[in-house]
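Ops channel
N.P.: pipeline sanity check, posting one input/output pair.
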């Protein structure tokens, strides 16, 4: 007995040594990743993919906060490749961006291994993906990251699941080519001439018919289509690499608290996420804890992440729904108490359409600081709208007698202006049926003998120049603008617009929906006649709580400091020619944005396009000014809605070159990207 007690301290000492060694191993992990081509079958047809360790998505990397990681990435592809650690604060040479990260060249060469070494400085939900030119990310080089915190998170949960949503197409190598041929290649819901006649026949009175014609004429003159919500459709949407039919399932016992880590790993898709029958409590955004906020649903753009807690109490299956904005399918998973259970899939919501109000009212350079070393000007062809006259028509610049105020002399449409966007009608396909391969949408046939002078509100003499700036247009009137009403005193008031609870589309659920109905335009809710830049209209029934950036209050906020200067970041491009840019210049034509180390700059984002842009910065955080002061959220990706102006603070606290870009893959690929240089001293900065 005495001998046992004498040996006990030694045993405790040895146990302590073992635990210490184990802890050292956990804090210095080595991970091995291999990139290679594989054949997959997502749509019913074999297709080429690029995978990490043979998986789609790639393997989960689970780190510890404070861990010193070594990650060996071997490239077995026949082209240079790369891996970027999205949202992780790493040294610039470890960031994995070809052409920007120091010493990285144009990426990891075929047949070679690149070793990343860095200390993990944060915790939360993140992901990693290719950052090379081309379609590597679209073809499968992406995967989740979970970083366990040093201190326990301030919320309790019983189970922890990743819900990684993505989009897949068998024709990834042809997407940009198709968009260059026709930017509406994938818009299967274009407005047609037949649809125009149907709208006119259903209009209740002459004024309504004039409004319909004005709207059609305006969009045609601008060579745009309000139904063009997403650049690319015909996707199959995945959850953790599984199709809606394969139905990823997360198990629970009634009453348990389940943490769902949502990651939008798609190339081009925004998802509206909901779990019918369950409230979600958002506890983290882009890896950073926030004050818990209870919501019914949220929209998230490419690269954003949200962690939510749910607590199902019934012994039944619940469906996790991720519906793309263009309503062409679902990403779908199930929460269930037992394997094999399948939750009911709801019918599609109505498709949104873009309104003229969302196109903005103040396009073009403002003459403010762009942050470049030398003065920089827009290049031709980057600023929309191309036709401010069309904006006036569409925004209601028609007087009650049909004449256009402030545009005397413009009597008809420019010769050759199309009267509709055209497009073939497609029918839905039931789950399990083969999906049609996208083909170039047919243009609507021209209408012989159509006289624009006989259109309501239009006469027949030649058009005048349409190149003047929108701000110089006299007599702008919003009397025909959707979302406004007029009282007897002549003052416009915001009309209350809402969607009835049963206003949903029916038809195919797991596959693309064609030829369905459209939502009303987003109502105007701000003084400059643009929709609120921080709220999302998902088409939900009245009373639904939809997450807004304003709801996000950081639990561990970034040290507060007032910004030192404002840099203008105009999101520009040319949809017709399909290229995208920042401040009127594509990445290949632009200077870097130079920041002084230690300063805080305010990026004033101005979206001059009709598309959403999820803007992502490397090496630091984006702090959107959403009215929460020092508790504004820390995000690595912030969505900028069409026509919106959003102020976002950027702490320049990490030296080195960093990438800054739109995270819509094909927007970045065609030019919406800049290099940011954070330096100790700047000789001169353009104002």
């Amino acid at each position: 007995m005495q001998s046992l007690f004498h040996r006990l301290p030694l045993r405790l000492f040895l146990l302590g040594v073992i635990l210490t060694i184990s802890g050292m191993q956990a804090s210095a992990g080595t991970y091995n990743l291999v990139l290679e081509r594989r054949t997959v079958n997502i749509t019913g047809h074999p297709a080429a993919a690029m995978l990490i360790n043979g998986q789609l998505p790639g393997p989960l990397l689970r780190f510890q906060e404070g861990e010193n990681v070594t990650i060996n990435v071997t490239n077995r592809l026949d082209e240079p490749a790369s891996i970027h650690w999205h949202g992780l604060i790493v040294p610039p040479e470890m960031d994995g961006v070809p052409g920007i990260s120091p010493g990285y060249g144009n990426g990891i060469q075929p047949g070679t291994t690149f070793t990343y070494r860095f200390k993990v400085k944060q915790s939360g939900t993140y992901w990693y993906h290719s950052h090379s030119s081309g379609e590597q990310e679209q073809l499968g080089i992406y995967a989740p990251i979970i970083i366990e915190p040093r201190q326990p998170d301030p919320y309790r949960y019983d189970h922890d699941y990743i819900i990684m949503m993505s989009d897949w197409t068998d024709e990834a190598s042809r997407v940009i080519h198709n968009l260059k041929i026709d930017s509406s290649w994938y818009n299967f819901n274009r407005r047609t001439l037949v649809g125009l006649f149907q709208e006119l026949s259903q209009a209740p009175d002459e004024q309504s018919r004039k409004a319909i014609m004005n709207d059609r004429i305006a969009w045609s003159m601008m060579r745009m289509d309000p139904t063009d919500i997403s650049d690319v459709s015909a996707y199959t949407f995945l959850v953790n690499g599984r199709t809606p039919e394969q139905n990823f399932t997360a198990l629970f016992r009634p009453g348990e608290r389940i943490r769902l880590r949502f990651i939008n790993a798609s190339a081009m898709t925004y998802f509206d996420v909901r779990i019918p029958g369950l409230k979600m409590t958002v506890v983290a955004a882009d890896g950073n804890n926030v004050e818990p906020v209870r919501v019914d649903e949220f929209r998230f753009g490419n690269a954003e992440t949200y962690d939510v807690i749910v607590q199902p109490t019934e012994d039944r299956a619940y469906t996790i729904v991720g519906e793309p904005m263009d309503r062409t399918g679902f990403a779908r998973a199930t929460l269930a108490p037992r394997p094999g259970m399948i939750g009911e899939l709801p019918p599609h919501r109505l498709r949104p359409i873009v309104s003229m109000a969302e196109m903005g009212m103040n396009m073009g350079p403002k003459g403010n600081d762009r942050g470049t070393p030398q003065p920089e000007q827009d290049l031709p062809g980057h600023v929309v709208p191309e036709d401010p006259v069309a904006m006036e028509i569409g925004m209601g610049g028609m007087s009650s007698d049909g004449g256009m105020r402030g545009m005397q002399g413009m009597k008809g449409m420019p010769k050759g202006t199309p009267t509709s966007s055209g497009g073939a009608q497609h029918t839905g396909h039931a789950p399990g049926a083969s999906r049609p391969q996208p083909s170039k949408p047919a243009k609507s046939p021209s209408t012989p003998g159509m006289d624009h002078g006989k259109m309501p509100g239009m006469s027949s003499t030649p058009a005048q120049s349409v190149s003047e700036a929108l701000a110089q247009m006299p007599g702008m009137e919003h009397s025909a603008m959707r979302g406004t009403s007029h009282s007897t005193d002549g003052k416009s008031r915001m009309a209350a617009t809402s969607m009835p609870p049963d206003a949903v589309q029916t038809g195919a659920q797991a596959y693309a929906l064609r030829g369905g109905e459209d939502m009303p335009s987003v109502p105007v809710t701000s003084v400059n006649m643009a929709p609120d830049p921080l709220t999302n209209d998902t088409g939900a029934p009245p009373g639904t709580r939809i997450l807004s950036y304003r709801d996000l209050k950081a639990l561990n906020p970034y040290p507060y400091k007032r910004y030192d200067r404002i840099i203008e970041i105009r999101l520009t491009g040319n949809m017709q020619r399909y290229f995208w840019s920042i401040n009127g210049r594509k990445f290949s034509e632009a200077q870097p944005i130079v920041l002084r180390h230690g300063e805080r700059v305010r990026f004033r984002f101005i979206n001059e396009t009709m598309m959403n842009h999820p803007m992502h910065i490397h090496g630091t955080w984006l702090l959107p000014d959403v009215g929460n002061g020092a508790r504004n959220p820390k995000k690595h990706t912030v969505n900028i809605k069409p026509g919106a102006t959003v102020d976002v603070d950027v702490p320049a606290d990490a030296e080195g070159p960093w990438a800054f870009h739109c995270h819509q893959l094909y927007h970045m690929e065609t030019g919406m990207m800049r290099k940011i240089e954070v330096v100790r001293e700047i000789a001169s900065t353009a104002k």
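N.P.: looks fine end to end. Confidence is low (pLDDT under 50) at residues 1-26, 398-527.
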